[in-house]
Design a protein that fits this description.
binds 3-[O-phosphonopyridoxyl]--amino-benzoic acid, 7-stranded mixed beta sheet, 15 strands, 467 residues, Aspartate Aminotransferase, domain 2, Aspartate Aminotransferase, domain 1, alpha/beta, 4-stranded mixed beta sheet
């Protein structure tokens, strides 16, 4: 039997899935009525479903399969480590070679003096660590009142209680009594939707100044940290105006607060450098990492902390009463090491910066000419299209937000392209190893999906502007 065909028939799989599996970020009634799409294998940038249909994965899984699917070296690294030491913890004065190797590799690759790594199983867990770390850091310096974390509306930092509180997704806060205490949210630098008559540059400064106003309002003595993604991914690939990050950096330098940069999506090449912080000239105190670190082959996340801060923390903090069973899991570490080795050996980042990202940019931005597209934007290998009822007014559709995006997403899936919709924005973030001809395929399928969506909207009378 072919190992790849070792599964039940599609309808049987769907019925069992509906009966026993609850999906994340999913309306259960809806998925069970439609039947989930069953993905059975993958290679390079393509997925195959249980009916043998091939899909171009324009999302790299969930923004994570940076080196593409089917890399045997990663499977072999996992198998080797599983045979030698499948598990041991890093609590109680113990360690193991893979976690040591990975930590020193990350310290070498991470910006400047980010040198010490605390591991988690995911980006969410790592951001929970960051909350506890930042608060305990200030407490150990005799400033226990510094506990407020300032974050942003429409930011995404994960799904655990702490990380979802840092996130600024109102739909998430509405379920389960969030946010936790001492988290404040300021405006996001989303010029297209919120910039009104300001130029992007003016708007970038105005949004950044909200941080300074928040620090003044809350009292610097009460603020522990500011957290933000270099580019908001799940929020819809919101690329800040060029003025934003320099002003944020100035404010963080001028005040005694930690700057936590969530690199879970932007890290490991997505923006054309190893880290988004390099692309935007940010000097973080802590970065959150996950996803691309292992190209998603195994779950692993972490926080990389600036040497000086980690040193103070180690000298004054005593025991940090925090950790996960799988902090520094040896097999996940071995896979991450192999993933990073391949990225370095194959010069993945340089190829992105010099070849793939410029080509994807040229092709992606050409979609801005489509009558349904109000704006096309891209940085590195992540981009968005603002679907709009009229070309240049930046006004939304009269229909509920997300209705149009969903229609386009469905067309895209039927055409064999995985794009995600965030409201009425289409976003893409393909594996970094996508070739030029695969980029052509992606953009042509996206174009076709836009045409079909446009025809649908016309037919249904949905090309109406919100009043
Ligand atoms: N920070 C950022 C910036 C993220 O994008 C997390 C933290 C949380 O990581 P974990 O590993 O706990 O999921 C993320 C995750 C989407 C989508 O649909 C995005 C994420 C996760 C799931 C879905 O865009 N980002």
């Amino acid at each position: 039997m072919n190992i790849l065909d070792n599964h039940r028939a599609t309808d049987e799989l769907q019925a069992l899935d509906a009966a026993h599996h609850l999906h994340p970020f999913t309306d259960t009634a809806q998925i069970n009525a439609n039947g989930a799409r069953v993905i059975t294998h993958a290679s390079g940038v393509h997925l195959t479903d249980s009916n043998g249909e091939k899909l171009l994965d324009g999302m790299a899984g969930l923004w994570c399969v940076n080196i593409g699917y089917g890399r045997k070296e990663l499977a072999n690294a996992a198998a080797r480590q599983m045979s030698q030491l499948p598990y041991y913890n890093t609590f109680f004065q113990t360690t193991h070679p893979p976690v040591i190797e990975l930590s020193s590799t990350l310290a070498r690759l991470a910006p400047a003096d980010l040198n010490r790594v605390f591991y988690a199983g995911s980006g969410s867990e790592a951001n929970d660590t960051n909350i506890r770390f930042a608060r305990h850091y200030w407490a150990s310096l005799g400033k226990p009142d510094k506990s407020i974390i300032i974050a942003r509306k429409n930011g995404y930092h994960g799904s655990t209680l702490g990380a979802a509180s840092l996130g600024g997704m109102s739909a998430m806060h509405a379920q389960g009594g969030l946010p936790i205490p001492d988290v404040e949210h300021i405006a996001q630098p989303y010029w297209y939707a919120e910039g009104r008559d300001n130029s992007p540059e003016e708007f970038g400064i105005a949004c950044a100044r909200e941080l300074e106003f928040a620090i003044a309002r809350l009292g610097e003595k009460n603020v522990a940290a500011f957290i933000a993604e270099p580019v908001q991914g799940a929020g819809g690939v919101i690329i800040p105006p060029s003025t934003y990050w320099p002003e944020i950096q100035r404010i963080c330098d001028a005040h005694e607060i930690l700057l936590i940069v969530d690199e879970v999506i932007c890290g490991f090449g997505r923006t054309g450098n190893w880290f988004g912080s390099e692309t935007f000239g940010i000097r973080p105190d802590i970065i959150t990492i996950a996803k691309g670190m292992s190209s998603g082959y195994l779950p692993i996340g972490g926080s990389i902390i600036r040497e000086e801060i980690a040193e103070v923390f180690s000298q004054k903090g005593g025991e940090f009463v925090h950790g996960y069973t799988y902090s520094g899991h040896p097999v996940a570490c071995a896979v991450a090491i192999e993933n990073l080795r391949i990225m370095e050996e194959e010069d993945v980042i340089a190829t992105v910066a010099d070849v793939s990202a410029p080509y994807l940019e040229e092709r992606w931005l050409s979609l801005a000419d489509h009558p349904l597209v109000g704006e096309a934007r891209i940085v590195g290998m992540m981009g968005a299209l603002e679907l709009a009822p009229e070309k240049s007014s930046r006004k939304p559709f009269a229909s509920d937000e997300g209705d149009v995006g969903l229609i386009c997403r469905e067309h895209s899936f039927s055409n064999g392209l995985i794009m995600r919709h965030v409201g009425d924005k289409m976003v893409m973030s393909p594996p970094l190893v996508i070739t030029k001809s695969e980029i052509d395929e992606l953009v042509e399928l996206a174009h076709m999906s836009l045409d079909q969506t446009y025809a649908d909207l016309k037919q249904r009378g949905m090309l109406k502007v919100s009043q």
